[in-house]
Design goal:
Largest sheet of chain B: none
Strand content of chain A: 15-25%
Order of helices and strands of chain B: HHHHHHHHHHHHHH
Number of helices of chain B: 14
Oligomer: heterotrimer
Strand order of the largest sheet of chain A: 6-7-8-3-9-10
Mean pLDDT of chain B: 87
Helix content of chain A: 25-40%
Low-confidence stretches of chain A: none
Strand content of chain B: under 5%
Distance between the termini of chain A: 52 Å
Largest sheet of chain A: 6 strands, mixed
Chains: A alpha/beta (273), B mainly alpha (273), C alpha/beta (282)
CATH superfamily of the largest domain in chain A: P-loop containing nucleotide triphosphate hydrolases
Mean pLDDT of chain A: 93
Radius of gyration of chain A: 20 Å
Number of strands of chain B: 0
Radius of gyration of chain B: 24 Å
Helix content of chain B: over 70%
CATH class of the largest domain in chain A: Alpha Beta
Number of strands of chain A: 10
CATH architecture of the largest domain in chain A: 3-Layer(aba) Sandwich
């Protein structure tokens, strides 16, 4: 679906943000891009819908190089949800906000109506359709922003730090929603430094540091490797930390989930007694 | 935008940077007055060289040149208007009587238009040196010590502080809307203007929210606690500052003397000798 | 000794129909490190604004009940008077720094107090050092990372030497490393200088080890108030949707299956130690 070949990117200010990225994202995959602030995560994903064009190297989306295509064309396939919903909300009503992109893409009025309805339902905001997005709470605004992108049903959905500023319950809801999208065979790319969030979703993970990919694999492998994790300046999930600490007792160390952890501990305790 | 580039302060330390901004401003004003006094090309060429040592001592040559390059567009307009105006109304402008018809008269006209253009360049060049070597912080301080009300000085420095922040934010908003299929360059003139609404509204709303938060933070840090505030920094005149005053005044005296008693030959006559 | 005391505090924002907080009665002791948490919109921020007088003086609206902070009746004192005792650090680091250099920002409050320059210089340097950012003193704020900016905000409040420091979700825009650093700095202020800390936070997994008290709010009311271990292990906290640390969740899972660990852990290290004993003993 998305193929990144030897990508280099330097900002006009001279900052070398990406230095030789190679990556393939398959159709229907769920990928988490992790690393410290400033590691180049957001710079990388901004290449997927053409907001940034490579200084060197190439990105292919569905086999087409992003170099030759406008953002608007790429956006049909690749939806990008920005971190802060306030950077995009501008319409008088929620309904209008969701229809904005559909109008830009030149959908017919009947289709627009249908898609808006669908998106309102999907994110459970139908009751706010005539409300001004500015009257809504932070969590609700986030859902409106999400709906305004899912409305045109892009195949790839990129989310930049979706959990930032969200409370526990909103986070849980968001996680369920992302997993559901992925279950519907959507390709989902999430940029995040929320380790616990990734530990619960267990997607494929790439770790970035100083413009390079330093490790890649499923979350269970990556987040439980203390060396790899330290290289990207992130802290392993709490559960993993316990098991790393107890490694000398012969317990496995690649544990990120509470349920699995308690199962293993219980097994071990029964064995002994 | 490159004209403004030349006016952006960069943090370097040099003898010029350390000069008192009030004195530097005085010096720039003297240059300004001198540029206005003279209309002869020869005199203006001399004036053009006066700020050069400052540029080199402060090591801001590149930025300074960039600001000059940014002024090229205006310089061409000034040159063209002067030339065309001089062609049609030569007597109100030069010593030429009647229509411009000989090569010599064309040269006189050319010299006159060049002089007017150079006058503009001298002004830009000297103001640019001032802004390139004066931190906005010092400028605010200078305003304050010149008995301008603190509220005004504070507004000034805060505005400068938020320029890069707002520029970044505008870029993010533009990206977010482009990712929803907005094409800024599409349509006729009116449509293009309207294309900016989805960018302006989030920008304005965020600026309002920002200013409220700023006000809250200021209140929380004891804004208005006492009638007479103190200041962490204070500007004190140093020996180099007095030296610059002296040099400036001397320059002015010489300039006035030349203006009154010396007739500056025109370049055309000099060269034809 | 109580440093903050409210009784039946109810506040309604101007133009709003429903109060943002209702009948909040709470006592915070001097030297406490309190985590204030709860779902967004529960009234945490509103309560913080009451503590330093932004409510009612900046926001107007209708405030009922009693509130005394550091011996001052909030209703009768101006915000800048309360600012000598209470510092407030906000969520967005960008919008609380107004100067063009770090040290100038840190000096802002002191300048307002009309402090003499030499004294001010000392205080600024001290505050920068406590926040671990001495080397940034002349940098412009927009060149700093979010975590560094937030430490500047802490230093600029600290420079005023308040007895109470309130931090309203200071880490929500930061990465885990930046967040950890903030928690360490404020824990230091709490331990070394005895400053009372009120930290509004969702990331309980990282913050809870520093606190001696957790207050949970929901729908404008305080619903839980006590020792972190007790709160995290309570059924009510789970129902409200407080982000209970994973290690506490593990404790609960084990308990359901009949394994009773001797203590409710709040950090991975502590959990590992307890588990090690259990596993070795058996």
């Amino acid at each position: 679906m998305i193929e990144v070949k030897d990508l280099y990117f330097t900002y006009p200010t001279g900052v070398e943000a990406l230095r030789g990225i190679n990556l393939t994202i398959d159709d229907g995959e769920f990928l988490a891009v992790m690393g410290q602030n400033g590691a180049g995560k957001t710079t990388l994903v901004k290449h997927f819908n053409g907001l940034l064009k490579p200084t060197k190297g190439e990105i292919l989306v569905d086999g087409v190089s992003t170099q030759d295509v406008s953002v608007a064309q790429l956006a049909r396939n690749v939806g990008f949800v920005f971190q802060n919903p306030d950077h995009q909300l501008f319409s008088e009503t929620v309904e209008e906000e969701i229809a904005f992109a559909l109008r830009n893409f030149g959908f017919e009025e009947t289709v627009i109506k249908k898609q808006v309805e669908w998106a309102l339902n999907l994110l459970d905001i139908t009751q706010y359709r005539k409300t001004s997005p500015f009257m809504l709470s932070g969590g609700e605004r986030k859902r409106v922003a999400l709906a305004s992108i899912l409305a045109w049903d892009p195949q790839v959905i990129i989310m930049d730090e979706p959990t930032i500023g969200q409370d526990y319950q909103q986070k849980e809801k968001l996680m369920q929603f992302i997993l559901q999208l992925n279950a519907q065979k959507k390709t989902v790319v999430v940029v995040t430094h929320d380790v616990e969030f990734v530990a619960e979703c267990n997607p494929r993970v790439i770790l970035m540091s100083q413009g390079k990919i330093v490790a890649g694999g499923i979350a269970e492998e990556i987040l439980t490797d203390p060396k790899v994790v330290a290289q990207a300046s992130i802290v392993p999930p709490q559960i993993t930390q316990i098991f790393l600490e107890l490694a000398d007792l012969g317990l496995p160390t690649d544990i990120i989930d509470v349920h699995e952890a308690s199962k293993i501990l219980l097994g071990r305790m029964r064995e002994k007694s | 935008m490159s004209v403004f580039e030349g006016f952006k302060f960069r943090k370097v330390s040099s003898a010029v940077h350390r000069l008192d901004p009030r004195i530097k401003f005085f010096y720039v004003i003297i240059l300004f007055v001198m540029a206005i006094l003279f209309t002869k090309l020869l005199a203006l060429i001399v004036l053009f060289f006066i700020p050069l040592p400052f540029v080199f001592i402060a090591r801001v040559n590149r930025q300074w040149l960039r600001s000059l390059r940014g002024a090229v567009f205006f310089a061409i307009i000034i040159f063209a208007t002067n030339f065309i105006f001089g062609y049609f109304y030569p007597s109100s402008y030069t010593e030429i009587t009647g229509a411009v018809d000989s090569l010599g008269e064309y040269l006189v006209l050319l010299e006159r238009a060049s002089a007017m253009t150079l006058r503009f360049v001298v002004l830009i060049a000297s103001f640019s040196v001032f802004f390139l070597t004066t931190s906005p912080d010092h400028l605010g301080l200078a305003l304050q010590q010149s008995h301008i009300p603190y509220e005004f000085c504070f507004a000034f420095t805060t505005a400068v502080r938020f320029v890069p922040v707002l520029a970044d934010e505008a870029q993010t908003i533009m990206d977010a809307q482009k990712a929803r299929g907005l094409e800024l360059e599409r349509g006729n003139f009116l449509k293009r203007v309207r294309n900016y609404i989805p960018i302006l509204i989030p920008l304005i709303i965020s600026a309002i929210r920002r200013s409220l938060e700023l006000a809250e933070a200021m209140e929380s840090r004891a804004w208005g606690a006492s009638e007479k505030r103190t200041n962490l920094y204070v500007l004190k005149l140093k020996r180099t500052d007095y030296l610059l005053v002296l040099v400036s005044v001397l320059m002015l005296i010489i300039a006035v003397y030349v203006w009154l008693y010396v007739s500056i030959p025109s370049l055309t006559t000099l060269l034809s000798l | 000794m109580a440093i903050i005391e409210t009784r039946d505090l109810t506040y309604t924002y101007p133009g709003a129909t429903n109060p943002a907080i209702t009948e909040v009665s709470v006592t915070i002791e001097k030297g406490d490190f309190v985590i204030l948490t709860g779902p967004s919109g529960c009234g945490k921020t509103t309560l913080c604004r009451c503590f330093n007088g932004l409510i009612p003086h900046f926001y107007n609206g209708n405030l009922e009940g009693e509130i005394v902070v550091a011996g001052l009746k909030v209703n009768d004192h101006k915000i800048h008077q309360i600012a000598r005792h209470v510092g407030l650090v906000f969520q967005n680091p960008e919008n609380q720094l107004f100067a063009l250099s770090v040290e100038k920002d840190v000096a802002f409050g002191l300048e307002n107090f009309a402090m003499v320059r030499d004294e001010m210089r000392k205080r600024v340097d001290w505050a920068l050092q406590m926040a671990g950012i001495s080397e940034l003193s002349e940098r412009p704020p927009h060149e700093l990372s979010g975590g560094q900016q937030q430490r500047v905000a802490i230093a600029s409040v600290l420079a005023m030497q308040p007895e109470i420091m309130i931090l309203d979700e200071p880490t929500s825009f930061l990465d885990p490393v930046g967040a950890q650093k903030i928690f360490e700095v404020i824990s230091e202020l709490n331990k070394k200088l005895g400053i009372t800390i009120i930290l509004v936070e969702h990331r309980l997994d990282l913050a809870s080890m520093y606190a001696n008290r957790v207050i949970v709010m929901d729908e404008g009311k305080i619903v839980l108030n006590g020792e972190p271990r007790k709160i995290f292990n309570s059924e009510k906290a789970r129902l409200i949707g407080v982000g209970i640390p994973k290690v506490t969740q593990l404790y609960q899972h084990l308990k359901i299956h009949g394994i009773n660990l001797k203590r409710v852990p709040v950090t991975p290290q502590e959990t590992a130690n307890i588990l090690r004993e259990v596993l070795k003993h058996d």
